[in-house]
# Entry
Amino acid sequence: MDPETRSLRKTACNRDCPDACSIVVEKEGERAVRLRGDPDDPVTRGFLCERTAKFLARQYAPDRFLTPQVRRGGKLLSASLDAALDFAAEQLQRIRAESGPEAIFHYRSGGSLGLLKVAADFLFEQFGPVTVKRGDICSGAGEAANLADFGVSDSNDLFDLHQSRLIVVWGKNVHVSGSHLLPVLQEAKRRGAKLVGIDCVRTRLAPLCDLFLQPAPGCDGELALAVAGELFARGLVAPELDSFAHGVASFRALAEAQPLAQRARAAGVPVAELARFAELYATCFPAAILVGWGLARRSHGAAVVRLLDALATVRGNMGVSGGGCSYYFARRSAFDTSFVRGEAAAPRTLSEPLLGQELLEATPRVRAIWVTAGNPLSMLPDAAAVRRGFERADFVAVVDSHPTDTTDVAHVIFPCPTLLEDDDLLGAYGNHYLRASTPAIAPPPGVVHEITLLHGLATRLGLAERFPARVADWKARLLAKVAPHGLDAAALAAAPRRNPLAPQVRFAGHRFATPDGRARLPAAAPPLPAPPPADFPLRLLAVSTPKAQSSQWAEPPPSPPEVRVHPAAAGALADGAAAWLESVLGRLAVTVRHDDAIHRDVLFMAKGGQQRSGDCANLLVRAALTDAGEGGALYDEPVRLRAR
# Structure
């Protein structure tokens, strides 16, 4: 690199990941040539995950949208921004006049976690209000569990883990989802903490753990109840438990209803290993439980998370330094989004996990769909039904940077800045730091900021006076809550700042965010998962991968996709065999890999594949809801392998 043309810029990653890393962008002239983690960010600590370190392949991919696209005669053709906006505005106004605003559906997801994305919500609320989604495909059940138990879904400070004597990493693959947690765990171990891992897949964390349990899929609640039963039996619950928790007697009866050995057999783990876990949790205080988001993505996901919450509560680990049960960090708590009313204002809502079915059955029909920060045709269950639902609409507009299953059905595509070009504010759901994404490189000439795009649309819809045109004005509005603490857009652009509204210890003194300040313990346990049908003996587990951020792959995935199974579950299929992966919904061509780290009841594959490339796992997953929070029960689907 020529030192005379070399420069450095900083920004932050806005994609759906808990860390929201700060990035140092090395440039040669106006072109980014290398990405590395910012060493000055206390969480990022100078390194990036593989998918972000390799983002330049996506940044400069030849299929990127560089100008708006409008479908004419069945083909997408380049158009000017003005022409595309004129077309979109005409379609939206026509459909509203003919069928009312409820016939228009605004779908926003987490493809970007930038807070300015709420501007799209605001615009469509002013235009309608229009139909919006309800529920949350990723974290709905877990957040609902936290709300039921504690009144809010939040955590102790990330670095408070240094005070823990025991850390339980429960269903969380830290090398893939939140890799910047790993140095924190290593430092806690250096300070003397014990580490327990629990997962139906033996992850790369296992060698670092003092104990690693591998329960059958969906049986985690049995482990929590077994340990809670031991705490009650040994008199090791918090002595003042009745003063800060409701339902102690009924939860105790639930926990002691079965002996530890029986629960170990039900969960498929050795009795001695479960007893060792109970001993560690009983004697190592304070202890923190880190809950993986996938635990809640089953039909009884909320009930399982509630049992983990209860285990932490009865031992007295909630509201103390080094303790807690962490599912989520309240990433929006620093930002004022009160100007958007959301579901409360909408004339109707559609369930995100059931979106295909709801679009197909909606009366009156959804005639127009606007997609912000999402690729629902890949990322939602029963993906074929989602596609049919979108194809039923008269008009589909998608804001995205690259082709996806969703842009394949669009009538107009508006290109948006990438994470290296964006200008936004970020809160993380894996730590309490706030960051700004600032343009490290200029977007192509045909790509504008989404505020500019939306203001252009607002002008054509007669809403220009209600919709500020400047990014700076939106940032100031969002930061109104923390401005009294000296935190403005300029401060965040200079360096990450910890959310001044987030306490170091959540629920300090065992005071919870419930109406009376007391936690709620569950009175019932979820049933054990029913055995899969004999002809579909495996459970499909399509999860995050180091190679992709949801459906955003920096490099092409293997084709056909690879699936991993325990050798004992592969039957006559050899390692590397060509096979069909089948569910009751359909089949995919796959390559089989043997892996003894996978539980014998599980088939493991990467999520984020697309229908357009024949690797979309969601083509096989039926749409079903979790027990609370209207989340997606994504990990219950029975599947099988057949030779091809």
In short: The chain is about 25% helix and 20% strand. The first strand starts at residue 6 and ends at 12. The chain has three domains: 69-135+340-417+446-486, 140-327, 538-643. The radius of gyration is 25 Å.
